[in-house]
Specification:
This protein is an alpha+beta fold. Helix 7 crosses helix 17. It starts with a strand and ends with a helix.
Length: 564
């Protein structure tokens, strides 16, 4: 995993953009100038530590990429490329395949990636993986196309004004993330997941994107034992390729079944105990997953590390998380994610996580509610923001194809909205800020093809979501307690904000970003006992001071809370 930046048909040097992304590539920066193109790559060395530097040249083409192509060994073997390879880089087989097949080579990739490829045929491409695991941001101006792994590259280079789009900010307060390809900075857009863009003299040409999910209705048949066996084989293969690394790797283990499933397969494939980190909250009434995670760790003989999260950690990490999330998400799960990354960075360089299990296998409670009749409390699996225009934007960005089952439609919408614009941004920024690469074995094209077309009854059955995953896990790791009632994941932010709520409300209601969206009375109501929305408003306030007004993170926290 790395940071990339480039300028096509412009006067700016990519080196000016990459300077803001050194945290993504602490092992070094390399730049290159081609006719009309400037490229820069900040490297976090994971595969082929000596020979995998980029920009990478092969078969007459050049590439800079962020992420990993997990099936690079299979691509080389199956297409007779092994004798042609000069490095062990996971990106080199792509260049040889491009020389043979052109852009069709992009559809063979199994991995997480955002890359720029300058082909021997004179064509230039920008490509993002189907789930949007790896980010890429675009700026078009004066006939030039500029790209970078994070918005801060453009802001710190003075290429984008630090101006907040009010509609995107309303999405942030209502959903905890922003929707679609627009970002909170009006001049910038995100590449869509799976997007394939050709950069031509006339501008960007969009080619047929590569979808994350197959637009096929769920199957109606299936024998449970056969499906369990198929699931085992697919997940094992996905974990196997996701573990390919020349640097130390491990696991973030929660008390849930998704990370437990990954842990089972890592332990099965490992030659020595897998290092696993679990975060627990020391606060009254907080859901603490350490006990359940420890049971799984002991059953699998993991090298288990416990990470504590107390109130002091909340205030210390809040400004650091807000700084890391330059494309903001007010998901409070970013706080323990950042804390785990801090704890793991001295031991690991690669971390596997369970993101995607709920979306692919039907794990959310809202899916079960959507399948109930209205008289039993059923309602659509949609967010419920206060402002109808926020819901309208969410619906537009998450619109599912026709012909799917209602459950599949809900899964499709989450995979297009919540997953790339909240969960995966959170994972990318919080880990990269600490020099770690995050990998998501559930978000694999072969796993997704199988999961999405499962009969609905193997995803949601009775009070259980992820039915098939639970049935499989019950056989391979009973310690994971797959049939236990889901505890739910919460961070006790309200309890920690509460004693300071009145002072915080008075302070942040005076800030420009907050004043554009909420009256002082509305802010006070949000922070009052029983109020709604205090955490997103506090996050927006701290975030705006850092990214719009240029404040130091510690100073931003003090301005909002009166405490450093």
């Amino acid at each position: 995993m790395c940071g990339i930046a480039g300028v096509i048909n412009g006067e700016v040097a990519a080196a000016d953009l990459i300077a803001a992304l050194l945290h993504r590539g602490p092992d070094g920066v390399r730049t290159e100038t081609l006719p009309g193109i400037s490229l820069a790559h900040a490297r976090l060395s994971i595969i082929d530590l000596e020979g995998g530097w980029q920009p990478l040249h092969a078969a007459g083409s050049v590439v800079i990429g962020n992420g990993e192509i997990y099936n690079y060994l299979e691509l080389a073997r199956d297409h007779g490329l092994e004798a042609s390879l000069a490095t062990g880089s996971d990106f080199e087989p792509l260049l040889h395949l491009y020389a043979r097949e052109g852009p069709e080579a992009f559809r063979r990739l199994r991995g997480m990636y955002a890359f720029c490829l300058v082909g021997s045929d004179g064509r230039t491409w920008l490509v993002r993986d189907p789930f949007g695991i790896k980010p890429l941001y675009l700026l078009e101006r004066d006939g030039a196309v500029l790209f970078a792994s994070e918005p801060r590259a453009f802001l710190e280079a003075g290429l984008v004004d630090p101006v907040m789009d009010a509609a995107a900010a309303e999405d942030l307060l209502g959903l905890s993330y922003t929707t679609g390809q627009a970002t909170i900075f009006p001049a910038l857009r995100r590449m869509a997941p799976g997007e394939i863009l050709e950069v031509t003299p006339g501008g960007l040409v969009r080619h047929e994107p590569r979808p994350a999910l197959p637009a096929r209705r769920a199957n109606h048949g299936g024998v449970e034992a056969d499906l369990v066996a198929r699931l085992d084989a697919l997940l094992e293969d996905s974990v196997r390729v996701h573990q390919r690394s020349d640097a130390p790797y491990g696991l973030f283990l929660s008390g849930g079944i998704d990370s437990a499933a990954i842990a089972v397969l890592m332990a099965r494939l490992a030659e020595r105990p897998v290092t696993a980190f679990t975060c627990g909250f020391d606060a009254p009434g907080a859901a603490d997953e350490r006990s359940q995670a420890e049971k799984v760790a002991r059953a699998l003989d993991l090298d288990w590390r416990e990470v504590r999260f107390e109130e002091a950690e909340f205030w210390r990490l809040l400004p650091r998380v807000a700084h890391a999330l330059d494309d903001p998400t007010a998901d409070y799960a970013a706080l323990p994610t950042f804390r785990l990354a801090e704890a793991a960075r001295d031991t690991l360089r690669v971390v596997l996580t369970g993101e995607g299990g709920d979306e692919l296998f039907g794990g959310y409670g809202r899916y079960r509610r959507a399948l109930r009749p209205a008289f039993l409390g059923g309602r659509p699996a949609e967010p419920r923001p206060d402002h109808p225009e926020v819901l309208a934007r969410w619906r537009e960005s998450g619109r599912a194809p026709r012909g799917l089952t209602p459950l599949q439609s809900a899964q499709w919408s989450d995979t297009a909205t919540w997953l790339p614009n909240d969960l995966l941004i959170k994972l990318d920024r919080c880990l990269m800020a600490n020099g770690l690469e995050g990998r998501t074995p559930f978000l694999d094209p072969e796993v997704a093809d199988f999961a999405f077309t499962l009969p609905d009854r193997f995803k949601v059955r009775g009070r259980f979501g992820k039915y098939l995953v639970r049935a499989w896990l019950a056989g391979v790791c009973p310690a994971a307690a797959p049939w236990a009632r889901k505890q739910g994941f919460t961070v006790p932010v309200e309890a920690w904000i509460g004693p300071r709520a009145t002072d915080i409300a008075g302070r942040i209601s005076k800030l420009e970003a907050v004043r554009r969206l909420r009256t002082p009375e509305a802010v006070a109501a949000a922070f009052a006992p029983g109020g709604k929305g205090a955490w997103p408003l506090l996050f927006l306030a701290v975030w705006s001071l850092i990214h719009l007004e240029g404040a130091d993170p510690t100073d931003a926290l003090e301005a909002c809370t009166g405490h450093a």
